[in-house]
Amino acid sequence: MRQLVIATHNPGKLKEFRPLLAPLGYALTSAGELSLPEPEETAGTFPGNARIKALAAAQASGLPALADDSGLSVAALGGGPGVYSARYAAGDYPGAFARLIAACAAADEWRARFTCALCLAQPDGATATYIGLAHGRIAPAPEGVGGFGYDPVFIPDGYTQTYAALGAAVKDAISHRAQAIAQLLAALSAR
Ligand code: IMP
Question: Who has the most CB within 10 Å: 12, 49, 90, 119?
Fold first, then answer.
């Protein structure tokens, strides 16, 4: 069975990737499981950071590697925290939710979007990048216990509940990550 490294140390992302990538028929392992070093994400853009992580994992493991760089861009924060989403929370998601909601309330501007940039890198340095977007808004209060990260405060367009309250089946059908993976699967099946 062909192997693919998921270039993440984030257990929430890994859990989402497994079912979404099942159609590929790869044996999946992760940068965390292989104890690969985590490169610094210095590109300042989602696709740039995904490329850094995918190339680092492919070169360190000698296997194809798939990296995700993703985050939440909030209109009231001028598009932030964006690529700094993990750092904005600094492990305290309830605190980050309160700051986000306060900023949206102060600006009376609740629009937000998730971006997922996926990069598939080969050990020889070849890369391909795919981008998925999910538009929506910040919830006036956190809701739901599913998912990870900012899922309790993001309501995707066309829905009245947050990603966390909608649950994994709905999130996996519509999310920024699912959309990027659909493009990856289409590109791989066209080969
Ligand atoms: P990265 O590991 O640098 O790409 O950080 C991405 C961060 O963005 C995560 O740690 C979360 O805070 C946030 N994020 C990305 N995707 C999602 C998602 O699907 N739901 C909730 N938060 C997410």
Answer: 119
pLDDT tens-digit series, residues 109-152: 999 999 999 999 999 999 999 999 999 999 999 999 999 999 99
70 Cα: distance to centroid of ligand 1 (angstroms): 5
Q: pTM (2 decimals)?
A: 0.94
> What are the structural domains, with CATH classification, of the chain?
3-189 (3.90.950.10)
CA–centroid distance, 47 to ligand 1, in Å, is: 14
Substitution candidate for ligand 1 out of 16, 66, 148, 174 with most atoms within 8 A of CB: 148
Query: Ligand 1: which of 150, 153, 179 to mutate, most ligand atoms within 8 Å of CB?
Result: 150
Express each pLDDT in 95-112 by its tens digit. 999 999 999 999 999 999
In the chain, the largest separation of any two C-alpha atoms, in whole Å, equals 53
Residue 1 to residue 124: CA distance in whole angstroms: 20
> Rounded to 5 degrees, what are φ and ψ at 119?
-125, 125
Beta bridge partners of 20: none
